[in-house]
Amino acid sequence: MARLPILRFPDPRLHTVAQPVAQVDARIQQLAKDMLETMYAAEGVGLAATQVNVHERVIVMDTSEGRDEPRVLINPELTWTSDAMTDEEEGCLSVPQTYDKVRRHARVKVAALNERGERYEFEAEGLLAVCVQHEMDHLMGKVFVEYLSPLKRERIKTKMLKKTREEQAHGARGRL
Ligand code: K2U
Ligand code: ZN
Questions:
Q1: Of 69, 135, 166, 167, which residue is the catalytic one?
Q2: Nearest C-alpha to atom 6 of ligand 1 is from which residue?
Q3: In what order do the strands lie in the sheet with 107-113?
């Protein structure tokens, strides 16, 4: 198992469109395990492969209270979306300490392959519905700040670049 580095907005690699997984093999199974370890360590409820600079259609999630119900979605598809919409506050592991409301479908149906390559489907509402739509946006190269106003997005970009520069400077000082 390994924790993977998470790309930080506005890293351009976050805007890469992920490719379908050709074969659910040992490499993909290890990636899913490493993504789950990375997600739990970062206290997230979801993580897309794009965020760890792997541009294949893999998502992991765990929205359970006990943080003990991991889900692996390979080549996920939304097979149905409700007309009803919700506006929920979202965050993102690639945009730390940043939260804002995003309009999403209130309920969705999802089809995907699991870590054994078996196809399964589920219906989601609430946090799980928001999370799966947020993660599928990542696989399309879209970050949630793109739903916000240009002014908000620019302020967030400036904040993230400053935070990254400070962390790099701190890291450099630590190695002197
Ligand atoms: O993709 C990610 O960056 C992980 C997000 C997924 C997410 C975003 C919005 C709403 C639900 C899930 C992180 O889990 S952000 C941290 C978080 C944790 C609990 C609830 C909401 C957000
Ligand atoms: Zn995110």
A1: 135
A2: 46
A3: 46-48, 58-61, 71-81, 107-113, 119-125
User: CB within 8 A of 159, min separation 6: which ones?
Assistant: 98
Ligand with the closest atom to the CA of 44: 1
Determine contact, residues 164/8, Cβ cutoff 8 Å: yes
Of all atoms in ligand 1, which is nearest to the CA of residue 6? 3
First to last CA, the chain: 30
Length of the chain: 176
135 is catalytic: yes
Residue 82 CA to residue 67 CA, distance in Å, equals 27
Strands 100-105 and 85-90: antiparallel
Q: Which residues surround ligand 2, an ion (CB under 5 A)?
A: 92
Residue-level pLDDT at 40? 98
User: Do 35 and 52 form a contact (C-beta atoms < 8 A)?
Assistant: yes
Digit-coded pLDDT (tens) for 129-138:
999 999 999 9
Radius of gyration of the chain (CA): 16
pLDDT in tens, 103-149: 999 999 999 999 999 999 999 999 999 999 999 999 999 999 999 99
